Amino acid sequence: MMLTDYSRIVVAYDHSDLSKKALKMAMNLAKQDKLIQLNVVTVMQPVRPLPYSSYGYALALNRESQEKEFQAIRDEITEELKTLPNKSKLLLLEGLPGQMIVEFVKEYDADLVVMGSRGLSGLKELFLGSVSHYVVQKAPCPVFIVK
Questions:
Q1: Apex CA 3: angle with CA 42 and CA 116, to 5°?
Q2: Which of 109, 113, 133 is nearest to 41 (CA)?
Q3: Confidence label for 83 from pLDDT (cuts 50, 70 and 90)
Q4: CA-CA 20 to 30 A from 144: which of 26, 45, 52, 117?
């Protein structure tokens, strides 16, 4: 299929297998036309202090582990995007993942969002099934869900 209508693609990325699949898919779409721009978005959730940590120690630890995680993501994506002739970049946003992705998509005037149907689970949760649901509902452009 030809994708001439899509010149700005946004990929929501959280290091999960489905988001890796989404990135591959988006890169393959972008390869069809050098003019397509690809933005990879990772959302770091604000770290809330735990009710029993009066010294913000848990807060700092959590923040540090998120930043380490983002470093790993950045290295991984940078390598990956080197193979693409298209204009591309990785952005780190901070906030609630669904809202931040939708906000970015609107601001950037994206034509297409590519994301996994669900993301990581457990402590490292950055994206949930509810995030893809939220983005599908609120994004002003088509959303391509990878399963």
A1: 30
A2: 113
A3: very high
A4: 45
The amino acid that residue 87 corresponds to is K
Contact 132, 117 (CB under 8 A): yes
pLDDT tens digits, residue range 26-76?
Answer: 999 999 999 999 999 999 877 766 565 555 556 666 778 888 888 988 998
pLDDT digits (tens, 9 = 90+) for 44-57: 877 766 565 555 55
Q: Which of 63, 62, 41 lies closest to 127, judged by CA?
A: 41
CATH number of 8-146: 3.40.50.620
CA distance 103 to 86: 23
> Residue type for 101, please?
I
